[in-house]
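Researcher: I'm preparing a figure for a lab meeting and need a structural model of a single chain. I don't have an experimental structure, so a prediction will have to do for now. The sequence is pasted below. Please return the structure as tokens so I can convert it later.
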Amino acid sequence: MALGNECFGALLGRTVKITLTCGAFQGVLQRVNADRSLVLRAVKNLDTGRSTPGAKMFFGREIVNGKEGEENVDYTVVDCFQQKFGSAVLHLKQQSVVSVVAEGVHLCRHGRLAWLQIATKSQIFLFDIFLLGPRAFKNGLQMVLEDRSILKVMHDCRWISDCLSHQYGVHLSNVFDTQVADVLQFSMATGGFLPHCICTLPECLMQHVAVSSRSAALMKGREQMAWDNPDIWFLRPCPPSLLKTLALKAMYLLQLRSSLMDKLMSDLTALVDDYINAFRNKSGDCLGSTKPTCMELPEELLQLTDLQKLRRKKAMEDYKINENGLLIRPAMKLKEKKDMQKDGSHREVGDYLLTNREPCQTTSYYDPDQFCQGKHENQNHDD
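Model: Understood. Here is the structure written out token by token.
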């Protein structure tokens, strides 16, 4: 349950759950300090299952429960073939655009796929591939992913494409890759320069979508947690905080695609506006000498060259250039960075500021055959 800070005082001595940018924790509330920090005892990390003896302090700025900027997201976990799976695939087959995200360990032909998140405008499905296995693709997901009439929005599709092809025989088609689109948009905005690096999904979202810094930190924190302990994606049942992160990525991808499309099409839109006004805002006398069949490039389109020169000049003033002639992108930073540093409870990870976390341990996880044996015994008719 999401709680505001004002509610915690009434819960002294009771077990509470708090969500931080670095994870979700549960413990007995021992003290609420004036600076909005909390002290819990018998703390359990709900993402890793690890318990910590004694008391632990959580700073107010770490807590995201019920705070402004925290996203509410509804999603459906699909972990068995009965009931939810069939209706989910049917819904996806009726779409023209979906977003696709994957989580696992070393996602390529040699890795392990744990989750496949697919979102539409109205629904988000979290397919538990660890439990469903290859049957998930044979029973409908392959048809969706290979359907050329369905646009799949993804971020850096190289790895999951390799994984799907070599492990499941699935060949992706009709993909809009937001990482590629981000580089293309950067090149357009700088008059043809390329950036020195690509962007992660949280970085792209901070750049192109109105995502709160808290939500971006939440996703980045989960990414770092999974990097430190990859097997966390195979923990069953999966902690709700991780499931929410999976859903947020899929939801935001659709928004990211729309934003990038608007930016990529901005020059076209501007030039078409000039075309609209090319003749109608001029004196009628000039139209008499205009040849309707003339195929010379109009002045409205020639301005593209001048526009690119101006952008290139500005880019050379605004960016540093590395030895390869690529523009060095500035690091993305969260708005709350300075405030977070004051309480000394945070450290930097990559370009994002994240909270200190407990040392990660190897997560034990269930064998999918044992876990779903009872559930799958009567599902042969779904094959």
